[in-house]
Amino acid sequence: MKQLTALFICGLLCHESMAQDTTVQLRDVVVTGQYQQQSVKNSVYKVRTISSERIQLRGATDVLGVLNNELGIRFSNDATLGETDVELMGMSGQSVKVLLDGVPLVDRGSTKQSLSQIDVNTIERIEIVEGPMSVIYGTDALAGVINIITKKRTEHLTVTARAQEETVGREYRPLDGKGLHSEHLGLQWGNGKWFAGGGFTRTDFGGWQGQFTGRKKEWHPKNQYLANGIIGYGGHQWEAWYRLDYLDESIKSLGDINTGNYRSTDQYYNTNRYTHQLQGSWKPTERLSFNGALSYQDYTRKTKTNIKDFRTNTETRSQDDGAQDLSKFNMLFFRGTVQYKLSDAVMLQPGIEIKRDGSSGQRIEGSPVINDYAVFVSSELKPVSWLNIRPGLRFIHNSVYSAPPVIPSINTKWAFNKDMDLRVSYARGFRAPALRELYFYFFDASHSIKGNPALKAEYSHSVNGSFTWQALRRGELRYTVALSGFYNDFDNLIDIGYSAADPTISTYINVNKFRTTGGMLEHTLSWKALEAGVGLVWVGRYNRFSDDTAYNKTTATPAFVWTPEVNANISYRFRRLGATLNVFYKYTGERPTYELAAINNVEVVHLAKTAAFHYADVTASKRITPYLTLNAGVKNLFDVDRLKNTAADAGQAHSTGGPVLMWYGRSYFLGLNFRWAKK
Amino acid sequence: MYKNTKPAYIRQSVLAFFLAAAFSACSNDDNDIVPVIPPSDGAELKLDGGGGAGAPNAVYVDFSADKPTAVPRTSWDLGFYNGNDFRVVLNYTSSISIAALAKTDITQVDLDDTTGISLAIGQGQGTLSMIDDITGDISKTAIAAVSATDADNKVYLVKPETASATDHTSWYKIKISRNGSGYKLQYAKLAETSIRTADMSKDENFNFSFFSLNGGKAVAAEPKKAEWDIQWSYGVYSTAFGPEVIPYLFSDFVYSNTLGGVQAAEATTADGFNYDTFKATDLSNTRLVFSGARDAIGSKWRVTSGGTLGIKTDRFYVIKDGAGNHYKLKFISAGIGQDGGQRGYPEIAYKLIK
């Protein structure tokens, strides 16, 4: 309780209360997959956006803290490494493309840690597109794309600062690192053609002890330093900017003291990331424009394992295999597109993409380099004013694996009237084999696993449809309803299997099939000071046993297992007070999975279930001076930490039985946001 | 409305902001725990496995002599039983695998005889028929009892750990016969036509007499049968693989000296046992169940995959050696999880129960 009192002392320092209007700008402009900036309504893709205001209202300290109540998004946490992967519409992170201003971010494995390594304070908005966007964005964009758009141009000098103190479950102490502490300072400047900006953020997460004792924690402490800078120049016809994002992340996994030898094994994971990008656009005529993005990314991750001896108070480096490692990844990326308007009815976008990935480190054979070259073209056809058809093709050549020769897509948008839009699309998606799948190398006493350079790409056929109806638009009242559905069929999925050449070696092979399907219903309502959204999604994931004749004889199982999700977001703005009150809620239903389990020494198909859970944040913000806003709230109101999981522990290697760690219980936060702009 | 007081707001805002920032800025102190360390309470040994999950050495431990003996674990392939029966065991501290042929004349065996035979073992491959009984029952060896009628003794294909599952020329062919009170071994690489012979006599001081196929000679490996109690090594055991039970190679496996009369019992805190307070009167506790099987301790003392990794701290073992002495044994570290140890160099503590 002492900790909480300390937390709220900050609140008392800021006793002023002033009335000030906060107007939330409804930014409905999107860029993901577009030829040029486009309104959400006119986009041929159905794009979800999350604004920076939403990020602030949620008191989020990383991107995951914003995405966690989005429909169709689910997290899975790796407690050993202290990392989180994201799942979109039933597909894991390796099928989700993460972009920073349209540029893909490097990740070392199949999990998308990059999402939690972006400075949340620099985000203008997040755009999410479900369904494949492989024609323009290439590999990994099967389940969808999460594009993070950063703040760029301002007309004036703007200073922003933020400090937030948060408990981690019941753990908080202002002085010893327990809890979550985040500070940010940002500057933006613009003067005529020039603009520049920079920011620095530190987020210190103290970890969570959970069920462990002593020094050991269930959630590992994590400390992030994030810095970024941008400089740009542009006039009427052209614009260019350079941006650098830097990350220094350290995750600490201390072992408990072994009372047998008074030693402990402590692990440290340190990640450094430099993301350079240079982007430009040139529009010489009304009909013609060029866009280019060049990026170089450098990612290193150092693993350090120390053995600490408490008798002698010394630390030595562990000599075990894999205890010390330096893994390096780098990527050079270029995408260039030309937008050419042939007539009012026909627009063309040809483009090229060049990508070079390099890597070295533990469990990677050699220092492989992969070069990927792609040419793509799409066009936007408007034969009549209410119809928009966008066919597209992508041709790929890869230096290592045999890439799919061509990836097609066709998106259509039918505007029935000014309030009703129907979008129907078919697309192929693909995922190139990752570096680790091509060049993995892990041989020890119980593993003989080798990458397979003969892998083919995973690919999908996807059909998406959505119907958006702005049902009410009267004065300050707006009500929109959207109904959508999807069906994805994935083939050639890469999994571990035996090498045909040498059955004693495991390798990656194209073997699995997967399907996802589902439907979503979203309502958004805006009326005076009230904004509300209620959504429902039903995600079906393929059950591989349904088509397996061997198991179907004994146990017939359905083709899909379904998980429902419901979310509700309510925001109310007290204009006179300059305050908001917000509720962010999400229900995630039970997640069933059919698995093989040996029960009483008989192998059966067993239905395992991960429990349903409710997640809710209640937050409030209040402008206390013209420059300072206080926000506070409760996160994870329902106090969820781990989810019950009935997976049978079949006693096999790498069993996944047992409860699933999801969160760390109910937390409280208090934050101050400072913003000053020169008029 | 704000005009007159604007500077004050700025000052307050900035002040409040920096106070909040200062509050959290110095929060990363690492005040580590300083434990109270009691004096040593008995014999402790660090076994020289040579490092790694597939450590190169097998280590025999003789509690009564406080003596560990490290032996390269693949230094032998076949162990000729020195007891009354005529039996030959395979090196259980390696991934050696074997298959019987119908042929009994070793000169008639060549690469063609591998048709339909796989000797791949481990990583989900292999069957229990390729290895000896995993509990160490000498009457259930993969090689049939050596018959006095030599026409009954079959030829076997052998793949030592160092050989390749796919390169059949790296395999051996062997035939074992009786030779008076001892054995005669005929062996050669599978493609070779000149057959080599070795005579193995019985020495009752030892459980087995050992032979190395690669070395082409008899070798010393195990200490005398009365001079070891347990053996720590990487070695073969079994696991469930779907509906089947298949051979699986375990790191840190602990074998009892079954043939030397050693028995072991697991004592758990759930059953009310405590390592520090365990004494002679506890030996009669009915919850303490002694087993003479080779895998009585096995891999039960640690968790290497799934949930929380490491040594199970809720249990220890009581060992009865061939001479009738009782020892209590606990595992301290093995480099698993975060136990402060090093993989392949396990630390154990044991004490004579008086």
Account of the 3D structure:
Chain A is mainly beta and 679 residues long. Chain A has one domain (2-677): Maltoporin, Chain A, CATH 2.40.170.20. Chain A is built from 6 helices and 38 strands. Chain A has a 22-stranded antiparallel beta barrel. In chain A, a hairpin with an 8-residue loop joins strand 19 and strand 20 (369-381). The longest helix of chain A is centred in the N-terminal third of the chain and has 12 residues, at 2-13. Chain A is globular and about 75 Å long. The relative contact order of chain A is 0.12. In chain B, strand 18 and strand 19 form a beta hairpin. Chain B has 2 domains: 43-72 and 225-352, no CATH class; 78-216, no CATH class. The termini of chain B are far apart. In chain B, strands 1-20-19-18-15 form a 5-stranded antiparallel β-sheet, with no helix packed on it. Chain B is mainly beta. Chain B contains 1 helix and 20 strands. Chain B has one helix spanning 6-25, and strands spanning 43-46, 57-62, 67-72, 78-81, 88-90, 97-100, 155-159, 172-179, 182-189, 196-200, 208-212, 217-219, 230-241, 244-256, 263-268, 302-303, 310-311, 315-320, 326-333, 347-352. The radius of gyration of chain B is 28 Å and the shape is globular. Classes of the chains: A mainly beta (679), B mainly beta (354). Chains A and B meet through helix 1, strand 10, strand 11, strand 15 and strand 16 of A and helix 1, strand 13 and strand 19 of B. Chain B: InterPro entries: HmuY (IPR025921). Chain B: This is Heme-binding HmuY-like protein. Chain B: It comes from Chitinophaga agrisoli. Chain B: Residues 1-27 form the signal peptide. Chain B: Keywords: Signal. Chain A: This is TonB-dependent receptor.
Task: Spell out the blueprint of helices and strands.
The complex is a heterodimer of chains A (679) and B (354).
Chain A: H1 2-13, E1 29-30, E2 38-39, E3 47-51, H2 52-58, H3 64-67, E4 73-78, E5 83-88, E6 96-100, E7 103-104, E8 123-130, H4 134-137, E9 144-150, E10 158-166, E11 180-191, E12 194-205, E13 222-234, E14 238-254, E15 263-282, E16 288-309, E17 314-317, E18 325-341, E19 346-360, E20 369-381, E21 387-398, E22 406-417, E23 420-431, H5 435-439, E24 441-444, E25 447-450, E26 458-474, E27 477-498, E28 506-527, E29 530-542, H6 549-552, E30 560-574, E31 579-588, E32 591-599, E33 602-610, E34 613-625, E35 628-635, E36 642-643, E37 660-661, E38 667-677
Parallel strand pairs in A: 6-9, 25-28
Antiparallel strand pairs in A: 1-2, 3-8, 4-5, 6-7, 8-9, 10-11, 10-38, 11-12, 12-13, 13-14, 14-15, 15-16, 16-17, 16-18, 18-19, 19-20, 20-21, 21-22, 22-23, 23-26, 24-25, 26-27, 27-28, 28-29, 29-30, 30-31, 31-34, 32-33, 34-35, 35-38, 36-37
Chain B: H1 6-25, E1 43-46, E2 57-62, E3 67-72, E4 78-81, E5 88-90, E6 97-100, E7 155-159, E8 172-179, E9 182-189, E10 196-200, E11 208-212, E12 217-219, E13 230-241, E14 244-256, E15 263-268, E16 302-303, E17 310-311, E18 315-320, E19 326-333, E20 347-352
Antiparallel strand pairs in B: 1-20, 2-3, 2-13, 4-5, 4-11, 6-7, 7-8, 8-9, 9-10, 11-12, 13-14, 15-18, 16-17, 18-19, 19-20
Organism (chain B): Chitinophaga agrisoli
InterPro entries (chain B): HmuY
Keywords (chain B): Signal
